[in-house]
Amino acid sequence: MPAAHIYEIFIRAPQQRVWDALTDPVDTVAYFHGTRIESSFEPGARYISRVVAGDRPAVDGEIEVFDPPNRLVLTWHVLYDAEMADEPPSRVEWLLSPATDDDSVTRVTLRHGDLALSPRTWASVKLGWVGVLNSLKTLLETGQALPPVDTGDRESGGAVEAQWHRTQAIDANNSVWELLDGRTHSADEIDDLLGRAYAAAYHWRRAAGTTPVNAARASWLLSRVHAVLGDGRLALHHAQQCAVHVATAGQLAADFDHLYAHESAARALACLGRLEDASIEFDAARAVVIADDEDRAIVEADLATEPWFGLTIDA
User: Fold this and answer.
1) CA-CA distances (angstroms) from residue 107 to 19, 42, 64, 233, 307?
2) Looking at the DSSP assignment, which residues form a beta bridge with residue 76?
3) Is residue 299 part of a domain?
4) What distance in Å separates the CA atoms of residue 22 and residue 162, rounded to the nearest whole number?
5) How many structural domains are present in the chain?
6) 26, 99, 252, 291: which could join 105 in a potential S-S bond, CB 3.0 to 4.6 Å?
7) In CATH, what number is assigned to the domain containing residue 121?
C-alpha cells in the first residue's frame, strides 16, 4: 500500500476560478460531498469542513501553505468516522497551473500523502477523491456539480490494514540487511537493528496472506540478529520458534526453510558456547538437500558467513 494518492485532472476554467472553488463554501457544498469549509486560510490557522445536512463535522486540520492561486497545503484529520478519527493526520496538497497560453484550461494536481500510518483513511479517500475531482470539473465546466455517484466497491478497513501490514513487514525485513553487513554496531545501530527485526515480526503476524512460513522466516531473522549481537539465549529462543513454525507449515515450507531452522539453532548454540550441540545442528542443516541452484548458492553463502563463535564448519 503506497503512502500517498496522486491525481491529476484538466479543467476548462481559468486558474483563479478553480482556486476560488477550493475555498468558497458555496462551491464546496456543491462538489465536495455536501461539505462547507470554514477557515481564515492564513498559514497556521485551523479549518473545519462540515456536512451541511445535519451540521456534522467531516474533516479538520491546519492550513500549512496558502499561496493563491497556485498552492494550498493542509493537514487532514477525519471526523466522519470514529476509527479513522483515531488515525494520525495526513496531508493534502493542491497544485494549480495554467495548461494553455490563454488560461482557459487549468491543470489540477492533488496529492494526499502521509497516509502510511492511516490505512483506513487511505482506503476511504482512494476513490473519494476521484468523485470530488470529477464533480469539481463538472461544476466549473457546466455550472452544475455531479449528483451523488457510486464510486465502486471499497476494500474493507480490515483488508486494507492487513495489506498495509504486509507492506510494512516486507520493508522492515529488507531494511534489516542494511545493518547486517558485517560491521561492528554502535549502540544506536544495535537499537535500530533490533527495532527493524522486531517490526518485521510484528507486521508479519498481522499481514494479509501471512502463513507459518512467514512466521518461521521472521523468527529466523530475529535469531540471526540476536546471534550477531552475541545474545545466544534469545537467538536460541527464536531458532526454536523458527523450527516450530517450519513444522507447522508442513508442505508450505521450502527446503531451505528446513535448513535455516537447523542453521539458526547451530549459530545460537555456538553463541552459547555449546559447540558439540551446535555441530550436530550444523550437520543437520548441511544434510538438507536444496533443489534449486540459485537457492543453494544463497544458502552456501549464508553458511559461510560469520559469526560462528569458534565452531568449526565445513562450508
Assistant:
1) 11, 24, 21, 60, 57
2) 90
3) yes
4) 34
5) 2
6) 99
7) 3.30.530.20
Kind of pairing between the strands at 71-78 and 5-11: unpaired
Regarding beta strands 46-51 and 56-67, do their DSSP bridges make them parallel or antiparallel, or are they unpaired? antiparallel
Q: Could you tell me if residue 33 is inside a domain?
A: yes
Asked if the structure places residue 285 within a domain, the reply is: yes
Instruction: Return d(Cα 217, Cα 62) in angstroms, integer.
Output: 43
Cβ burial 200-230 (10 Å sphere, 16+ → b, else e):
bbebbeebbebebbbbbbbbbbbbbbbbbbe
pLDDT, mean of residues 229-252: 96
Identify whether residues 123 and 172 lie together within a single domain.
no
Ramachandran quadrant class, 118 (left: phi over 0; alpha: psi -120 to 50; beta: rest):
beta
Q: What is the pLDDT of residues 224-238, one digit of tens each?
A: 999 999 999 999 999
Q: Are 103 and 189 contained in the same domain?
A: no
Please say whether the beta carbons of 269 and 279 come within 8 A: no
Q: pLDDT tens digits, residue range 63-81?
A: 999 999 999 999 999 999 9
Calculate Rg over the CA atoms of the chain: 27
Q: Which residue, among 252, 312, 306, has the nearest Cα to 276 in the 3D structure?
A: 312
Residues 227 and 273 placed together within one structural domain of the fold = yes
Residue with cell 456543491: 30
Grid cell listed for 135: 464533480
The answer as to whether 210 is a domain residue is yes
pLDDT in tens, 134-174: 999 999 999 999 988 776 555 555 677 788 889 899 999 99
Q: How far apart are CA 160 and CA 77, in angstroms?
A: 18
Residue 112 and residue 89: Cα distance in Å, rounded? 11
